[in-house]
Write a structure and sequence with these properties.
about 160 residues, mainly alpha, TIM Barrel, three-stranded parallel beta sheet, 5 helices, about 40% helix
Length: about 160
């Protein structure tokens, strides 16, 4: 009989986060540490578990990845993560956000969607917003990449 695989639990993630962030802070107490979760409800970091992870004393900043909510300026799981960050008195930032141009859409439309997101999320309490990802080539509407001449760059500059 084949043994069942070991699945990690919320406790495993919590213990890992506390241990590793503690080691980092013991080596360098002057830099901010974040866990690097996606903040979008993944196993071990959803609902109350997100706040529990954020409450670790050696975690300084909470994070969120915003993909798949192109026309939703404040996804519900981001709203709950912002609430958790406020309850903990810790900042939260969107460390990755991507919008693919919809079929028949334009880069200008994507830039407008980014502008609405950034404005709403900063107003809701997010401390920073990173568009994903830069490419030295011209923007490809079928990807998340932003490149030279993309109108999304103007949105970034305006905020």
């Amino acid at each position: 009989m084949t043994p069942k695989p070991k699945y990690f639990t919320t406790t495993d993630l919590y213990n890992f986060a506390a241990d590793v962030s503690g080691v980092i802070k013991s080596i360098d107490p002057n830099h901010l540490v974040n866990l690097g979760t996606m903040g979008g409800g993944q196993c071990g970091s959803q609902g109350a578990d997100y706040q529990k992870l954020g409450a670790i004393s050696t975690i300084d900043v909470l994070e969120f990845h915003d993909y798949g909510h192109d026309s939703t300026v404040l996804p519900s799981n981001l709203t709950s993560d912002i609430s958790a960050s406020k309850a903990l008195g810790k900042p939260i930032f969107v460390d990755e956000a991507g919008i693919q141009v919809a079929s028949g859409g334009s880069l200008a439309t994507r830039a407008s969607e980014f502008d609405a997101k950034v404005t709403a999320q900063l107003n809701a309490g997010v401390g920073g917003f990173l568009v994903w990802s830069w490419n030295n080539s011209l923007s490809n509407p079928a990807s998340w990449e932003v490149g030279p001449g993309d109108p999304t760059l103007n949105v970034i500059d305006s905020h």
